[in-house]
Amino acid sequence: MVSMTADDTCVKVGEGIHLYRPTEPGPINPSHPTVVLIFGWMAARFSHLQKYTSIYRERYPDTTLILTQCEPSFFWSSQRAQHKALAPLVDVLEALGLIHPLQEASKPRKTPLDSIVPLPTHRILLHVFSNGGCCQLMILGSIISNRRAASLTTATHTPASALILDSCPGDGGFSSAERAFTISVTNPLLRILVKLGVIILFSIRLVMEHVFRQQSTIPSMRSQLNDPDMVPWLNKNSPRLYIYSEGDEMVPVHAVEQHMKDAVEKGFNVQSVKFGKESKHVAHARSDPSRYWGATEQMWKEAIGAQD
Fold first, then answer.
1. HEC readout, the chain
2. What pLDDT score does 155 carry?
3. InterPro entries from the entry (predicted)?
4. Which of 6, 60, 207, 276 has its CA 20 to 30 A from that of 174?
5. First CA to last CA distance, the chain
């Protein structure tokens, strides 16, 4: 599915996946990312995520931006369904030259994807929100790995890249998951049904972990985020910025700080911004915009500096 939105530089390439063309076409400023990838939090409204895309488009008008929304159904879906949901994103990344095409002849793309020209250089900024965004990034990494595309098509070295982890990763606790799945549900009866679904999922998770010794989604996600080969644009030298708060009721401080500690021990380039109790889940940019966006801009400058 490919359709234009009210903004003629924004193209909906799939369900919940939007491609933003540069507002200022032409040579890309070498200090700007060539692509910004945003993975939204679970059940985030498009209007809420647009607040972030607007900032990036103002800051980097010559940059291509890709926004991926995360619906609760993504978590309930089979791996095959998850891969299918992210297929339009993979098509865009392939068209931009960020991943290798499949070995077999690929079928023709529908307009306007067929008009995308591969970028001559790659500078990638990933902005990931909450466990929902983290899980989608994890699935994307799995898709790329399955395609045997562990390197870029046009780059001969690792590009400038950086990762922002906003309000994540959580530890997958029951109370956190219950809030995450029910926060957008207003119907009382439906809320009860969703809670029952969460209870069933957690029961299955306990059986899989303690009886069959299989790692469940959240522990696997936390582990893969500290894998330098998760996606081909990141490595241990890529700056990663954790943004979290004491006021987040879904992702506790200790869950983020433990992941930060593990990342440091593995040799990752870790930075962090910790907000107070007044800053809620995925609301840190609203709590203190100057501090939030200042930290992200400084981190990107470091990523560019590391490339030189």
1. CCEECCCCCEEEEECCEEEECCCCCCCCCCCCCCEEEEEEEECCCHHHHHHHHHHHHHHCCCCEEEEEEECCHHHHCCHHHHHHHCHHHHHHHHHCCCCCCCCCCCCCCCCCHHHCCCCCCCEEEEEEEHHHHHHHHHHHHHHHHHCCCCCCCCCCCCCEEEEEEECCCCCCCHHHHHHHHHCCCCCHHHHHHHHHHHHHHHHHHHHHHHCCCCCCHHHHHHHHHCCCCCCCCCCCCCCEEEEEECCCCCCCHHHHHHHHHHHHHCCCCEEEEEECCCCCCCCHHHHCHHHHHHHHHHHHHHHHHHHC
2. 43
3. AB_hydrolase_fold, DUF829_TMEM53
4. 276
5. 40
Arithmetic mean of pLDDT over the chain: 85
Q: Say which amino acid occupies 194.
A: V
Dist. CA 83–CA 85, nearest whole Å: 5
Q: Where is pLDDT greater, at 95 or 174?
A: 95
What pTM does this model have?
A: 0.85
Proportion of the chain above pLDDT 90, given as a percent:
59
Q: pLDDT at residue 116 above 90?
A: no
Which domains does the chain show, CATH number per domain? 3-169+221-307 (3.40.50.1820)
Mean pLDDT in residue range 153-159: 51
Place of tokens 């001969």: 156
